Amino acid sequence: MKRITQIAIGLTLLGVWFGGFQATGQDEQLNVVSTSTIIADLTATVGGDAIEHQGLLTPGDDPHLYEPVPRDVEALEKADLIIYNGFNLEPALIRLIEAAGVKAQKLAVGEKVTPLKIEKEGARVPDPHVWGSAENGIIMVNAIRDQLIELSPENAAQFTENAAQLTAELAELHAEIKEQIATIPEDQRFLVTTHDAFGYYAEAYGIPVAGTLIGISTEEQPSAQTLKALVDEIKNLGVKAIFAETTINPSLIETVAQEAGVEIAPRKLYSDSIGVPGSEAGTYPGMLRTNTQTIVEALGN
User: Fold this and answer.
1) Which helix (H) or strand (E) holds 136?
2) How many whole angstroms separate alpha carbon 253 and alpha carbon 79?
3) Within its chain, how far is the Cα of 67 from the centroid?
4) Which of 35, 207, 257, 292 could form a disulfide with 84 if both were Cys (CB 3.0 to 4.6 A apart)?
């Protein structure tokens, strides 16, 4: 009888110990890692102080070319959730995320958007630059919210409120951008950029991409034939100004401008990265708003 009582007490104490351990685990913040600065901004906004968040890239980093460093490996191995764009935007990081040692839940949030397809090396592939449309941004925000709620349901109210505020801002911004682009005379409403990163923006806001120097990945190198074809198209359409980008060396697009006898817009466009914290393009909505101002100022009357 005495032995049975001792066993019962021991089991009770063990249950208390495990119960305390589980409660501590529930109180710990979700460890979330994101890749590009755009994804990082959306994740940090939705998660707020209910998550411990780390973005791997910094403003100005090109996700197409980014090569992971040891601290990235450590962050990914410790993560509970990894949020990345997908559609091969960040190829080196995707290879690392898919490695056997990374056990976290994974969300390819860009792949929640129905992609545009473009030609690359004889095949039609998804365009990864889905954030160009604020409506696609809303899809991404909601996907992040749902994944965070699934892994941290006790913070569902906070995630839901944060997402609702951000999606309301993006819905308003979507309408605002349409109105702003519509002020550009139709015969001047053409985009020419260094790489093909504005397809979703062009489709959503009614400003055709007249041409780009390289395709969807900045790994590509333009041929002399491509450069000449772009120069000819700029001349044929009477394009008023063309655009450099913050994450790409401007020398090639400057050559195009010189050959075509056209101006480069005074300000660069943000294509694959938001701006530095505190700047006008230092958030995802700020990036879209700033790009629109840059385009309207360069192409409008």
Assistant:
1) helix 134-151
2) 39
3) 17
4) 35
Q: Which of 32-41, 55-64, 99-108 has the lowest mean pLDDT?
A: 99-108
* pLDDT average, residue stretch 5-25: 37
Which run of H or of E encompasses 23?
helix 2-27
pTM for the model stands at: 0.89
Query: Are 242 and 264 spatial neighbours (Cβ–Cβ below 8 Å)?
Result: yes
285 token code pair: 């909505």
Amino acid 73 reads V
Question: For residue 101, what are the CA distances in angstroms to 34, 106, 219, 292?
Answer: 17, 13, 27, 42
Those residues whose C-beta lies under 8 Å from the C-beta of residue 279, and which sit 6 or more positions away, are: 286
The DSSP call for residue 31 is E
What is the rounded CA–CA span in Å between residue 240 and residue 226? 20
Q: Residue 163 is encoded by which pair of tokens? A: 């997402």
The pair of structure tokens assigned to 222 is 């333009």
Tell me the residue type at 299: L
Are 171 and 134 in contact by the 8 Å Cβ rule? The answer is: yes
With cut-offs at 50, 70 and 90, classify the pLDDT of residue 53.
very high
DSSP characters over 48-62: GGGEEEEESS-TT--
**Phi, psi of 115, rounded to the nearest 5 degrees:** -85, 155
Mean pLDDT across the chain: 90
Per-residue pLDDT averaged across 60-74, rounded?
95
pLDDT band, residue 27 (cuts 50/70/90): low
